Each structure stands twice: as structure tokens, then as C-alpha cells.
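Researcher: I'm preparing a figure for a lab meeting and need a structural model of a single chain. I don't have an experimental structure, so a prediction will have to do for now. The sequence is pasted below. Please return the structure as C-alpha cells so I can convert it later.
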Amino acid sequence: MDEQTIDTIAMQLTRLQRIRDRTAAQIGTWTKDGLDPAAFATLIRLCHDGPMRSGALADVLHSDASTVSRQVAQLVGKQLVERQADPADGRATVLVVTERGRTVAEEVRRRRNENLSRVMAEWAPQTRAEFAELLRQFVDDFERTRPEMIAAMRRNWDQTFSGTEKDT
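Model: Understood. Here is the structure written out cell by cell.
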């Protein structure tokens, strides 16, 4: 692969993440509901995928159970999500978006889309469509190869530090 192209992509992804984090931090102080961006992402995911158990939600968000638990607690506290008995197993609970939650999620979606439209206002419709498809493909491939990447990184980490331990 073209190393310069890969470096550019990696640097731009890092740059985008930093810009998004900073923007979220600045916007977070202005929102009246006080929900953090991660809780909004959790709400949007539940709206999209429908009711699910907390563990399944953690899986689809690629997050750990304790983090999702904190986000869900925020959403339940704001009456955006409620816990209901799982129809398949009454001993367990599923997370269900309330009507208020759907209203908030739709407002967040509308604002997000307005902001993205501002960013791409001067792009031709075909360019936007191509970018959307390439980005979807990138994220799908990233998700597909994620276990392989993690395993390779662990092997490299173990080799690096197991070699260091032998030298000391």
C-alpha cells in the first residue's frame, strides 16, 4: 500500500477525532439537558436498533458494560429510556426508548444533519454520495478487521515487552 496515503488517512482521522472531541466539549456546556455525547450516541443506537439488553447494547457500541451502564443511567434519569421486562425472559430487562427519548433523538439527529450539511455545503451531490459510500465501506471494513488488528497489536506488544524483560 501507498504509505504516504495511509499516513495521511491516519493523521486526518486523528485530527477529526480531536476536532470532534473539542467541539463536543464546547457544545456540551450549552445543552440544556446535560447529557454527554456518548449518552446521545447510546440513545440514537437504541432508536435505530430497538429494545435490547444492556450487554447487547455494550456489544453494538463496542464499549464495556460499566460505561454503558453510566450512559443508560443518564438516559433513564432523564426519562429518555426505560427498563422493561424482556418479553423473551421476564427475569431480564431490555432498554426501551420513551416517546420523549424519540423526540430528543430526532432533534439531535436534525441538528447533526444541519451541521454536516454546513460542512459539505459546497460539495456536489455526487461527491457527498461517493463520500458517504466510501466512509460506510471504511467503517464496515474497520469493524470487520478490528479483531485481527487487536490480536496483531497484542502480539506486537507482548513481543516488545517480553523481549525487554529478558534483557533486564
